[in-house]
Amino acid sequence: MAKSALLKSSIAKKYWMALTGLFLCLFLVGHLAGNLQLIFGTPLQFNEYALFMTTNPAVKILSYVTYISILFHVVDGFLLTIQNRKARPVGYAKTNPGANSSFSSRNMAVLGTLVLIFIATHMTNFWAKMHFTTMPLQTITIDNGGQVSSFYITSGWGQDRFINVNQVDGENLIIEGNGFYYTKPIKVQFAEGYKDLHKITMDFFRSKEKLFGVIPNEGLFFTIFYVLSMAVLGFHLWHGFQSAFQSLGLNSPKWTPTIHFIGKAFAVLVPFLFAIIPLYIHFTK
Amino acid sequence: MSTAKNINITLKIWRQKNTKTKGGIETYKLDNVSTASSFLEMLDQLNEQLVNDRKEPVAFDHDCREGICGSCSLYINGRAHGPDTGITTCQLHMRMFNDGDTIYVEPWRSKAFPVIKDLVVDRTAFDRIQQAGGFVSVNTSGNTIDANSLPVPKDDADKAFMAAACIGCGACVATCKNGSAMLFVGAKVSQYALLPQGKVEATERVLNMVRQMDEEGFGNCTNTGACEIECPKGISLENIARMNREYLKASL
């Protein structure tokens, strides 16, 4: 009696690629909706969203599922590619692959590797800063009849949402733990400041600094890198989206044309909207 | 009315003495090839020339030369069964080529299909996959039920028949960039899974055939769809999807 191998068999690997891939497609939609606030929302709205995304327990669980999906998709894809190379030890002298398959479908491993490089860069640029470094907190400047003063905005618990910058670390208040406000003498925590991810993002794509001390105008460099990476993602999705349905056995004359259409629309639209964001930030002030 | 003419071609053919030796591409000039001849007849003509020159003729597989046995293989100019669709190599004609063309002729390339000699490969891996589950166990003790006495929906019968049209030639494996045999196995699983006689052993069949397929060293399907386009019998990718469904059902 045959035993199924839900991890090892060639078909099971397809299921895992498909399930993790489709989950990551859902993730893209959520991530895009959040990022579009950089264009259509206020800085405070974006920072509130960032605070929610890094602290809400449900979001935390989802984020771990996302990390695991990426890892699984990468490892599984890597194993598949190695096995597939081994399946043809001697290659053809003359090939004509364009005659029967699309560029995307033949280059999923290369495209996927490029997307992985992008994810690593992108997480270093923002995710790592948000999680592991001390970030500037969001402030606003209020002009009170010629007297200009800066205020921190906080998610305060029934307290004032504004704290005068001059008060902090001065007589009454201190900041600890990357954004928590405490009263100085008795150390009572009473509010949390917003890490200014909005400002970090704006500065990142507008930076005129040299990257690694060599590449001039790193803001422009990263804008181009992000836009090109989205094009690569588009090619990956062009094949990947509809391929996932086929792998899960969902292929019928009735539904497959619709799935192909949605897949191609998704592959164009989602990376396009993502790519607009760095372009918008870089070329506006 | 015949529009046939004669053309001169250059052939670049894979020559390999046996499984153990290393092969290589050899170049041959062949003149006065009628465009009305089939590709295999052209190879016959080349072999005649080689024999006259006291050289070893090129070994290649062929049998019915009617496009139904699946014996002839050949990767011609980068495509399984050459530059035409819905045909095996015996149905490929020299009118598809022009005077002065260089034509590459290579054997199927797959770890599971080792080269026996020149253009002949060992496709018994397919036989072993069939033996692992591509059959229906029938009581032959004299009370066999006539197949037609079981009602089968027309749609299912048509789909099963289309899957059963697979001639096991191996073009799907040869053309797949991953060397995957899933179109073949998908067709064989489907032709039984769709019919009442096959449903009894459906679970074991798909698990055993897929296990054997993996053991033979075929690659993994990445849904490029190349197999469906190169298949001489037009076996649809739907059969791979059906196998994926059957495998999931059998695994749970």
TrEMBL record, chain B:
GO molecular function, one term: electron transfer activity
Domain (4Fe-4S ferredoxin-type): residue spans on this chain: 157-187
Residue stretches in coiled coil: none
Signal peptide range: none
Domain of life: Bacteria
GO biological process: aerobic respiration; respiratory electron transport chain
Pfam families: Fer2_3, Fer4_8
Family: Belongs to the succinate dehydrogenase/fumarate reductase iron-sulfur protein family.
Record-given protein name: Succinate dehydrogenase
Organism: Flavobacterium orientale
